[in-house]
């Protein structure tokens, strides 16, 4: 067993785990998010797996002091009070760093200037309803607190002190906060003793993707101090899965969402290579493949999906991959270098892989059943535009056909035969033809599944079984701004949001899922952004220039805009997402005129 914690053999106790502990501030001090690097505090002994341990002061994690001394801070006038109008943002220099200065309702706020997710400049984002939305991937931050309010990403922004003197705006910040550009919220420490109870946990989370990790972190952020066990089929701690197909060379440690020490510090136990095979809801017990049984009080099901595979002749030959792990991705790159690669499926995963391999492989071919890539998602015109971009980068397309046979030489792939009778030379093949929910282990559990194997949940991410929640790619849920239509949205950002709502409702906070879906893809250094839910669109209104790859596409159904996609048109997608999040309907006539002044952001 790899990873942060190992699962014991049946009948044995979990091994004692050495943990680093952060001092936790009382609820009333939650705004003071940081603890002194050298500050004294009495570290609590965590009885994580049955053995109590006390910790030395030097084992505690270092963090900035909430009230740094003058030598640790920088303070300066950054502008005149009339330099910014209401609703404006500006990036200003402060000492060795930069700060995002915001004026909203007559008040100035100073925050970290980069989105902690991927480092986007927030000044180019959208300011609305007391929060700033990232221009790249849609994460939202409260301008009064810096707190992360919508996803993707895990961390919040630092909030800096602002004062007005003689009509000048002064900002004061700690030097360390200026350098870090991210703030991890204070989390409770696990104080629930598990001596003699290693086979039980308060919260069990099945699946360590975005939904599972955010659920665990949210519980700790909300003060939950009982035991949390997170189990995953993966051999790695939670990692940034969307990067797998965009950067196939990335190593597991580069993809990690949190370091190993984080899980230890916050008492989140991770069982890697751990497969749950049945769930006994009557006795609140999960049974693992090796026979180990774990009782729970609350359960989150976030098992994700399993990739579809080819069912043609020769389907079991070597060097045919569905990309699920960093090892898969790394191996594909090694096999493709200077050789012939075939990608089956022209959806997001397939096209991202094809784009990445063009600089590595001798040839890249894409096989797709539809007429154009992304046709069902982005429509014919946008799909054809992206197809041209790929063709100009030496990618060869074989459309409206599928694979009939995989031929091998000495057991390894050599040719891909198409139903059109075309034979493609191939040393490696990547299959990206969709996925199915990984919920087979729940079939006899009494937890409801629909006809396609998805787990239906309500707005609070609750299943049909009390105390059992579900989130991520394997669920269908009511989409608030589409009249609560039950949908499945397998987006990274949506999984984050669902994980948080599930955690809040485990704590009886009565939260409801309301986020606007947001996704992105990157190909040939071009980013395409998308927000909304466009299934069933009947028209596409394009503004800008498709040939120049500078456009925005509005997807409409009847008289209503239901989604938007753009390339080189920031921050339009984030602006539309913010409008949709405010429950305002965007009418088709508003986007047909080409006048998009109502969508213009005010960053400078």
From TrEMBL:
Task: Assign the protein's first listed, main location to one coarse class.
Answer: mitochondrion
User: What's an example Gene Ontology biological process for this entry?
Assistant: execution phase of apoptosis
Q: Under the GO molecular function aspect, what terms does this record hold?
A: 2 iron, 2 sulfur cluster binding; metal ion binding; oxidoreductase activity, acting on NAD(P)H
Instruction: Please give the Pfam families that the UniProt record associates with this protein.
Output: Pyr_redox_2 (PF07992), Reductase_C (PF14759), Rieske (PF00355)
- Disordered: where is this region? 30-49
Q: Which PROSITE patterns would you find in this protein's record?
A: RIESKE (PS51296)
Transmembrane ranges, per UniProt, are none
Q: Which UniProt keywords apply?
A: 2Fe-2S, Apoptosis, Electron transport, FAD, Flavoprotein, Iron, Iron-sulfur, Metal-binding, Mitochondrion, Oxidoreductase, Transport
Q: Where in the cell is it found?
A: Mitochondrion
Q: Which residue range or ranges hold the Rieske domain?
A: 76-171
Q: Into which family does the record put it? A: Belongs to the FAD-dependent oxidoreductase family.
Q: What is this protein called?
A: Apoptosis-inducing factor 3
Species the sequence originates in: Physeter macrocephalus
Query: Gene name on record?
Result: AIFM3
């Amino acid at each position: 067993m790899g990873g942060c914690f190992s699962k014991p053999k049946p009948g044995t106790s979990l091994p004692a785990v050495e943990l680093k502990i952060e001092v936790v501030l009382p609820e009333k001090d939650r705004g003071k998010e940081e603890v002194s690097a050298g500050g004294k505090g009495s570290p609590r002994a965590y009885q994580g797996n049955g053995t109590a341990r006390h910790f030395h002061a030097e084992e505690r994690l270092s963090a900035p002091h909430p009230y740094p001394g003058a030598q640790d801070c920088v303070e300066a006038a950054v502008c005149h009070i009339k330099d910014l109008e209401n609703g404006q943002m500006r990036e200003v220099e402060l000492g060795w760093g930069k700060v995002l200065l915001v004026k909203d309702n007559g008040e100035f706020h100073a925050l970290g200037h980069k989105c902690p997710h991927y480092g986007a400049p927030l000044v180019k984002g959208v300011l609305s309803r007391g929060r700033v939305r990232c221009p790249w991937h849609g994460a939202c931050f409260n301008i009064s607190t810096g707190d992360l309010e919508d996803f993707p990403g895990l961390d919040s922004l630092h909030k800096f002190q602002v004062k007005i003197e003689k009509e000048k705006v002064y900002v004061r910040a700690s030097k360390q906060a200026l350098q870090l550009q991210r703030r991890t919220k204070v989390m409770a420490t696990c104080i629930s003793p598990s001596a003699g109870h290693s086979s039980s946990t308060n919260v069990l989370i099945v699946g360590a993707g975005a939904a599972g990790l955010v659920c665990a972190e949210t519980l700790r952020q909300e003060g939950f101090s009982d035991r949390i066990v997170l189990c995953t089929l993966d051999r790695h701690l939670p990692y940034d899965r969307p990067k797998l197909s965009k950067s196939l060379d990335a190593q597991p440690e580069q993809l990690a969402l949190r370091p190993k020490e984080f899980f230890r510090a916050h008492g989140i136990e991770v069982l890697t290579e751990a497969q749950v095979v049945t769930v006994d809801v009557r006795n609140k017990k999960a049974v693992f493949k090796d026979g180990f049984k774990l009782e729970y009080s609350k359960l989150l099901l976030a098992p994700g999906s399993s990739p579809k595979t080819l069912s043609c002749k020769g389907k079991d030959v070597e060097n045919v991959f569905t990309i699920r792990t960093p090892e898969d991705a790394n191996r594909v790159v090694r096999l493709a270098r200077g050789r012939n690669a075939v990608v089956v499926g022209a959806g997001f995963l397939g096209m991202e892989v094809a784009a990445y391999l063009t600089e590595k492989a001798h040839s890249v071919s894409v096989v797709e059943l539809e007429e154009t890539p992304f046709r069902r998602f982005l429509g014919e015109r946008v799909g054809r535009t992206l197809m041209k971009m790929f063709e100009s980068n030496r990618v060869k397309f074989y459309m409206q056909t599928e694979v009939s046979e995989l031929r091998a030489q000495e057991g390894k792939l050599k040719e891909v035969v198409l139903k059109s009778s075309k034979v493609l030379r191939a040393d490696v093949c990547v299959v990206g033809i969709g996925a199915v929910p990984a919920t087979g282990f729940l079939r006899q559990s009494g937890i409801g599944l629909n006809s396609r194997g998805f787990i239906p949940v309500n707005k609070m991410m609750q299943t049909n079984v009390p105390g059992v929640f579900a989130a991520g790619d394997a669920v269908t849920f009511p989409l608030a701004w589409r009249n609560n239509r039950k949908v499945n949205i397998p987006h990274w950002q949506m999984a984050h949001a669902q994980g948080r709502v599930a955690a809040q409702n485990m704590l009886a906070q009565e939260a409801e899922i309301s986020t606007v879906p947001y996704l992105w893809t990157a190909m040939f250094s071009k980013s395409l952004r998308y927000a909304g839910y466009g299934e069933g669109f009947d028209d596409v209104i394009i503004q800008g220039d498709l040939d120049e790859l500078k456009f925005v596409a509005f997807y409409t159904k009847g008289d209503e805009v239901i989604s938007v996609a753009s390339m080189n048109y920031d921050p339009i997608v984030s602006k539309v997402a913010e409008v949709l999040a405010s429950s305002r309907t965007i009418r088709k006539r508003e986007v047909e005129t080409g006048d998009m002044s109502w969508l213009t952001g005010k960053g400078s």
